Amino acid sequence: MNMSKLVDEDAPLFISLTEDLFPGLRVPKTHHDELESSIRAVIDEDPSLIHHDPWVLSLIQLYETSLVRHGIMVLGPAQVGKTQCISGLAKSLTRNGQKHSIWRMNPKAITAPQMFGKLDAQTGDWTDGIFSTLWRRAAKREGEYIWIVLDGPVDSLWIENLNTVLDDNKTLTLANSDRIPMSNTLKLIFEVTTLENASPATVSRAGMIYMSAMNLGWEPVYNGWAATRPANQTASLSALFSEHIQELLTFVETQLHAVMYIPQIGVIRSMLDILVSLLPEDTVGSKKGAVEFSPAHIGRLFVYALVWSLGGTLDLLERTTFTKEIIKRGLDCPTLTGEQTLYDYFVDES
């Protein structure tokens, strides 16, 4: 429960403190054999998912938190697997005989009256909002577990209205004085990147699951993508990714200055998207001609995707530095003359 809310830097410190306070005491690990088996089955059914231990641990932490909290915040930067964590746990619990449904909405896309409802000052008519409508429906639903997921930045304009939901009252209070109690099969989940606009009173009422980009890394993202691609592509690409990507990511982050920050996972996804656009599904030929994509050709496409993903946000001067670093690593690059860089070239299929 406590480990799930800690950031990467604080987790080792917390463990060290508990070991100093309680020397020789080891807390036995809780096992959820049936749930873990269902999680593995859900992962096996989806070729884009990889059994990555830190991510699976987040699913277990979310499950344990849901047993004691009716309001949960899944916190972390973009593309660390928050959405898949929530949906993966719901699918796993459904496999175990407890039907779970996820109702997702973006509270930032609407105003507070559109979310909770509004009262017409002239006629006195009440119009329910999107969230209040979902809440009423969920309260009446029987035989099914409902998770209402608020997927978007937390805003003080609407988050304070949910304090009575998150505390022991578990009741949604509307402007027309309606009080809608929370059913035992309903959970309220916030999927957010930051809690800057949430008050301590709100945060203290909810269970917390922090998902770190450091725990995910780029390898599971690539492995999940590679599982959906033909073997004659991934044989060459896997070797190139293993040999070059991590060191080049570190080089760009420590030695160069990007115009805008993009997290590592976002950079890798951009690179994979570029490769998808360049590599046909069968790699036997292209629309322009029957040209077999040899390992050498795939290596050149790797360099092209590398340049426009990892180095896509560099300014002109640092693009030259990045070009020199790629050439120094022995990758298959064209012969440059004068002030040319790799950004001046593309891969011709012929």
From TrEMBL:
Residues 237-349 form the Dynein heavy chain AAA 5 extension domain. It comes from Kipferlia bialata. InterPro entries: AAA_6, DHC, Dynein_AAA5_ext, P-loop_NTPase. Residues 1-83 form the Dynein heavy chain hydrolytic ATP-binding dynein motor region domain. PANTHER family: DYNEIN HEAVY CHAIN 1, AXONEMAL-LIKE PROTEIN, DYNEIN HEAVY CHAIN 5, AXONEMAL. It comes from the Eukaryota. One of its GO terms (biological process) is microtubule-based movement. One of its GO terms (cellular component) is dynein complex. This is Dynein heavy chain. GO terms for molecular function: ATP binding; dynein intermediate chain binding; dynein light intermediate chain binding. Signal peptide: none annotated.
